[in-house]
Amino acid sequence: MTTVFRWGIISTGKIAAVFVKDLRIDPKTRNVDDVVHKVAAVGSRSLETAQQFIQSIAEGDPSIKAYGSYEEVYADKDVDGIYIGTPHTYHYINALDAIRAKKHVLCEKPVTSNAAELRALLAAAKQSGVFFMEAMWTRFQPLPQAVIKILETGELGNPVVVHADLSGDFNIQNIPKTHRIIDPALGGGALLDLGPYPLVWAIMALYENPRNELAAPSISASMLKTELTGVDANTSFTLTFPKISAQAILSCSINIHPTSPGVTIRCEKGTIRVAVPIYCSKSFQVEYFGEQGKVVRKEEKMFDYIGHGMHFEADEVVRCVRDGKAESALWGHDKSLLEMSLFDEVRKQGGYSLPPGVEKVV
Ligand SMILES: NC(=O)C1=CN([C@@H]2O[C@H](COP(=O)(O)OP(=O)(O)OC[C@H]3O[C@@H](n4cnc5c(N)ncnc54)[C@H](OP(=O)(O)O)[C@@H]3O)[C@@H](O)[C@H]2O)C=CC1
Ligand SMILES: O=C1OC[C@@H](O)[C@H](O)[C@H]1O
């Protein structure tokens, strides 16, 4: 049976456009027959912007309602679930409003500004009886699933060290100080914007390892802040998982181009290298060791699919809602909570406080 899910889109920025384009791909062309996504409404702070967005991103589809406020989308009875693509520091209030209107929610990463905001949202979602998920799209793509499968076979032995980095040159010297990537009021900086991706690889390779029994790692972090606005331009953090004797060495930067491989998973009997961009990589290599760590076999795996890759997380939302689940088994509330708790600790160790009033729950 096919489930039709009616999405309300909150905001009209860059990533909302990518998400809407992926939703509009005919599911049959990607061999999906149990889920149909319908973009039912788009809400912006300006009606004209919402209308322009529908015109340019959705070919002016007359069935999509344009609203000049987010509240009207939450109130629309023809909307089943809300996608939130606003800047980080608005996620909490936007998600709370959607949840209180009893809508299911898929909220962009990082899911909130801190762990306290997320705890409040999870309590509200439970009270409203709605599904809630952070839009950690990487977790649902075919390549990471294949990497996890290889790790699970045990052929490479235990993972010992994970290196992961996500960097991007945002030309920070020449962009307005109000750009979300460097504005502290919008949660600017490398950690909150890019940090979720090296972290998701550490979570997949180490935290999810059955021997780890979902034990939270300890953390040691360092942040280098830009004089421009005081946000972190470069952040590194090491996670230690004592139960499995493994570490993840993670980093992110907003003032340098990425380098490949973006992720290296070093195991006792081999190494996995994941090509950039690590949030939607299309290829990885596996090296198998013989005696003395000598490489005896190499494999390269390539992936391709229609669209940008955000439809995988959207499918997950619909299937979970259809099956009456409050959270996803792949990227559940525990993982978002771990992420936000670790980021709180990184910011504490790195001396990065958001401006007063930005964090709505502390
Ligand atoms: N999953 C992924 O691959 C990606 C995720 N992201 C995440 O998505 C979120 C948005 O990023 P991105 O799309 O690049 O951001 P943009 O700046 O392009 O868009 C943000 C949108 O949010 C709305 N908005 C509401 N309040 C504000 C405000 N005070 N200042 C600016 N915009 C506001 C605006 O829409 P309107 O005017 O219509 O109300 C705006 O267009 C971030 O949290 C980011 O981490 C970003 C890029 C990639
Ligand atoms: O999620 C993201 O992935 C790609 C980056 O360029 C972007 O800034 C970030 O928000």
Describe the structure.
With 362 residues, the chain is of the alpha/beta class. Helices cover 31% and strands 25% of the residues. It is built from ten helices and 14 strands. A hairpin with a 6-residue loop joins strand 8 and strand 9. Helix 4 runs parallel beside helix 5 and helix 5 runs antiparallel to helix 10. The radius of gyration is 20 Å and the shape is globular. The mean pLDDT is 98. NADPH dihydro-nicotinamide-adenine-dinucleotide phosphate binds next to helix 1 and helix 4. Keywords: Oxidoreductase. It comes from Mycena pura. Pfam families: GFO_IDH_MocA, GFO_IDH_MocA_C3. It catalyses: D-xylose + NADP(+) = D-xylono-1,5-lactone + NADPH + H(+). This is D-xylose 1-dehydrogenase (NADP(+), D-xylono-1,5-lactone-forming).
Any chance you could write out the topology, listing elements then pairs?
Layout lengths: L2 E8 L3 H10 L11 E9 L3 H11 L7 E3 L2 H6 L5 E4 L3 H13 L3 E4 L7 H14 L3 E3 L7 H12 L5 E9 L22 H5 L1 H12 L10 E8 L6 E10 L4 E8 L9 E5 L2 E5 L8 E7 L5 E8 L8 H12 L10 H18 L12
Parallel strand pairs: 1-2, 1-4, 2-3, 4-5, 5-6, 7-10
Antiparallel strand pairs: 7-11, 8-9, 9-10, 11-12, 12-13, 13-14
Helix pairs in contact: 4-5, 5-10
This protein binds NADPH dihydro-nicotinamide-adenine-dinucleotide phosphate and the ligand O=C1OC[C@@H](O)[C@H](O)[C@H]1O.
